UniProtKB/TrEMBL annotation:
One of its GO terms (molecular function) is metal ion binding. This is Putative nucleoredoxin 2. Keywords: Metal-binding, NAD, Oxidoreductase, Repeat, Zinc. PROSITE patterns: ZF_DAG_PE_2 (PS50081). It comes from Cucumis melo var. makuwa. It holds the Pfam family C1_2. The keyword GTP-binding does not apply. Residues 65-117 form the Phorbol-ester/DAG-type domain.
Length: 122
């Protein structure tokens, strides 16, 4: 659910009742249970881990069954929560996205093709 007139979707409270974050839903979608305990230190750690993970991935790929090039994206650079076009499961964090048509897949679901191979279009 999007924010409506500045009303947060999920507020995370500390045991003392103080607000930790008003972005609870977004953090859970992006990091799942790993977001806990929702502190700034934990979020910085997760961002660093995601950055390290991305260094191991190619910035763009050709995927079997799709005619366009797919680019590596995350919530910080054009991506966000998505439904994987291969496994139909929700994804968050890093994804390969087609900038032309919106096709998105988990990095684990990408089946790369040799650039010289014919493409079975989707």
């Amino acid at each position: 659910m999007p924010l409506t007139q500045g009303i947060p979707c999920l507020i995370i409270l500390a045991p003392n009742g103080k607000t930790i974050t008003k972005q609870g839903r977004n953090l859970i979608n992006l990091y799942r249970e790993n977001a806990y305990p929702f502190t700034e230190a934990r979020l910085e750690e997760l961002i660093k881990e995601m950055g390290e993970e991305a260094k191991k991935l190619p910035t763009s790929v050709r995927h079997v069954g799709h005619r366009h090039e797919l680019n590596l994206v995350s919530e910080g650079n054009g991506g966000g929560p998505f439904i994987c076009c291969e496994c139909d499961e929700q994804g968050s964090g890093w994804a390969y996205q087609c900038l032309e048509c919106g096709f998105e897949v988990h990095p684990k679901c990408v089946e790369t093709i040799n650039c010289n191979s014919p493409i079975n279009e989707r």
